[in-house]
Design goal:
Blueprint (H helix, E strand, L loop, with lengths): L6 E2 L11 H12 L3 E10 L2 E8 L4 E8 L7 H16 L10 E4 L5 E6 L6 H8 L4 H20 L2 E2 L8 E3 L6 E3 L6 E2 L18 E2 L5 H4 L6 H17 L16 H8 L2 H10 L10 H17 L5 H25 L9 H24 L1
Antiparallel strand pairs: 1-11, 2-3, 3-4, 4-6, 5-6, 7-10, 8-9
């Protein structure tokens, strides 16, 4: 049950962590007689997982114990405690619930979840190498439902990757877990909730959105972007590369779509990986500032009136162009340059040239 993509974030500088066998012995001793701890399952963000049997209820459970290496890092411990609270607040069939929380004899926090099986989505992918389109649809439905439930509570997971999902052996469902990197959306966050320093990079390597790679606050769109990357990984068996944080993954869309032959599914992944159009819509205030600057230069006699009129024509033409680009490359559309987009931008460019020519002749 070891995640396939380690989280990116600050590390604690506390005492060294126990080895797996030593930690297993300590957890086994401290949790008796309520739990019969049998073996170490692996690691998730900031904690180790152990398979146990809850004696009174005769059920298999997973105990996640906070890593000793982070004991002297208060922010990391608070993050672990937030993980417990976040997972406990979300009630959804595709989110692994928390049965109880507690602390070992030395104060190390832990929580208990149901045991669904040893397999994560990442490990299932390693075994299958790639998923069939129908399987990808089912996984995306499961993941999307879990994310919607989290986002409604203002919780952003920030650590979406194949290893953050457990596969239930009995039903085949995929359930979201590992909220160790979770954060709160700006709309519901108070100053006391700020655990991530400004500019810090938090996320799962290879599955971070552009804003996460730039150290900007993650939003619900960041989780959706990661969902698109997970879907791509499941379909192809390979993770996309990143030329830079400001651009989408380097994916050979046309060759991929032809090989998959599932236009609705590929369109859905396109939408998940769409860049946020709001960044483009800052063009309006920027254009207004440029006009004000040029107008001041004209009034001071440093530029001719013609320069202002040509700038005005350029700014006015740029507004519909920015809207067209935002529509086709934002949350409402695909990342490809379509024929409609080319025609619209061409018409805008033609109108701009006519306006500039008219200003030039009038001069």
């Amino acid at each position: 049950m070891v995640g396939s993509s380690p989280p990116v974030g600050p590390q604690g500088d506390g005492r060294a962590a126990d080895g797996p066998e030593a930690l297993l012995a300590r957890v086994r001793e401290d949790l008796r007689p309520e739990f019969d701890v049998s073996r170490h399952l692996g690691r998730e963000s900031f904690g180790s997982l152990f398979l146990a049997r809850e004696v009174a209820l005769r059920r298999a459970v997973v105990v996640k114990v906070f890593s000793g290496e982070h004991m002297q890092a208060p922010d990391v411990r608070r993050r672990f405690e937030r993980e417990m609270l976040a997972a406990a607040r979300i009630s959804h069939p595709n989110v692994v619930p928390i049965f109880r929380v507690g602390a070992l004899d030395d104060g190390t926090p832990y929580y208990v979840q149901p045991y669904l099986g040893d397999c994560t989505l990442g490990e299932r992918l390693d075994a299958l190498r790639r998923f069939e389109p129908a399987q990808v649809r089912q996984v995306m439905r499961d993941i999307a439902g879990a994310l919607v439930a989290a986002h409604k509570l203002g919780i952003v997971h920030r650590g979406i990757h194949p290893g953050a999902f457990r596969c239930e052996e009995s039903s085949g469902r995929v359930l979201l877990t590992d909220f160790g990197l979770s954060g709160l959306m700006e709309s519901v966050r108070s100053d006391d909730d700020r655990l991530t320093p400004s500019g810090a990079i938090f996320g799962s390597a290879g599955y971070m959105s552009p804003e996460q790679m730039l150290g900007r606050p993650a939003t619900d769109r960041s989780d959706v972007y990661a969902l698109g990357l997970v879907a791509w990984r499941l379909l192809t068996g390979a993770a996309p590369g990143f030329p830079s944080p400001q651009t989408k993954p380097e994916i050979q869309w046309q060759a991929w779509e032809e090989s998959v032959g599932e236009p609705q599914l590929t369109e859905l992944i396109h939408r998940c990986l769409a860049l946020d159009p709001h960044a483009l819509l800052i063009y309006a205030p920027s254009g207004w500032v440029v006009l004000q600057v040029v107008d001041q230069l004209v009034q001071q006699g440093l530029l001719e009136r013609t320069a202002y009129l040509m700038t005005l024509a350029t700014v006015l033409a740029g507004m519909p162009a920015a809207l067209v680009v935002a529509w086709h490359h934002g949350a409402r559309g695909t990342q490809r340059v379509t024929a409609a987009e080319k025609w619209l931008l061409g018409a805008i460019a033609l109108a701009w040239m006519i306006a500039v020519a008219a200003v030039w002749r009038g001069a």
